[in-house]
Write a structure and sequence with these properties.
Number of helices of chain A: 0
Structural class of chain B: mainly beta
Largest sheet of chain A: 7 strands, mixed
Number of helices of chain B: 0
Structural class of chain A: mainly beta
Oligomer: heterodimer
Helix content of chain A: under 10%
Shape of chain B: globular
Largest sheet of chain B: 6 strands, mixed
Largest interface: A-B, 31 and 26 residues
Radius of gyration of chain B: 14 Å
Chain lengths: 116, 116
């Protein structure tokens, strides 16, 4: 069974440009999460999808960040326009339906974003 | 406020010895879950072990065990018989509530180096 996959693994863009990160969750996982770790800081929650709906987007830093999950499968996280402080590692995670009990989140390998 | 504290930025251990990675947490929710994740140099976050707040026994998974001291609000990870492949970053995380969603709060991480 394939794990959570993220693309690209690395991205270097200039300030002001747009970048789109993609996450493919484990097949059948309704829950999809985005996290990020900026340099020297803790990993922070960004948002949570249940299928195609945003369950919680309290961690989104500002309106330059837009996440979508069309059809409840893969998700994209767009940063437009990118700023220097957006540099960091963006993680995606997925987990099964909540009613199947407490299940852990499975993380992807992350996308390292560098804004120069 | 919810918080996870990992006070050891770096630890080293001799191969085959046991090591304890510290984690303390703060929450006012009586129902919560505690996780440990491993992040090797390749970047992915690997789930290691989970402890629910109502679990009577300490969680164990192979060489990993979680020393859960509820009154002290600590959830230390014990790795027995360390191996060179255990060298990685280790993150303690907490999920509040019993809802099964994985909105996690992470600690800053501990970098473990296993020496031959």
């Amino acid at each position: 069974e394939a794990g959570v996959t993220q693309f690209p693994s690395h991205s270097v863009i200039e300030k002001g440009q747009t970048v789109t990160l993609r996450c493919d969750p484990i097949s059948g996982h309704d829950n999809l999460y985005w996290y990020r770790r900026v340099m020297g800081k803790e990993i922070k929650f960004l948002l949570h999808f249940v299928k195609e709906s945003k369950q919680d987007e309290s961690g989104m830093p500002n309106n330059r960040f837009l996440a979508e999950r069309t059809g409840g499968t893969y998700s994209t996280l767009k940063v437009q326009p990118a700023e220097l402080e957006d540099s960091g590692v963006y993680f995606c995670a997925s987990s099964q339906d909540r009613y199947r009990g407490d299940t852990e989140a499975f993380f992807g390998q992350g996308t390292r974003l560098t804004v120069v | 406020a919810q918080k996870i504290t990992q006070t050891q930025p770096g630890m080293f251990v001799q191969e085959k010895e046991a090591v304890t990675l510290d984690c303390t947490y703060d929450t006012s929710d009586p129902s919560y879950g505690l996780f440990w994740y491993k992040q090797p140099s390749s970047g992915e976050m690997i789930f290691l072990i989970y402890q629910g707040s109502y679990d009577q026994q300490n969680a164990t998974e192979g060489r990993y065990s979680l020393n859960f001291q509820k009154a002290r609000k600590s959830a230390n990870l014990v790795i027995s018989a360390s191996q060179l492949g255990d060298s990685a970053m280790y993150f303690c995380a907490m999920r509040e509530g019993a809802g099964g969603y994985n909105k996690l709060i992470f600690g800053a991480g501990t970098r473990l180096a296993v020496h031959p």
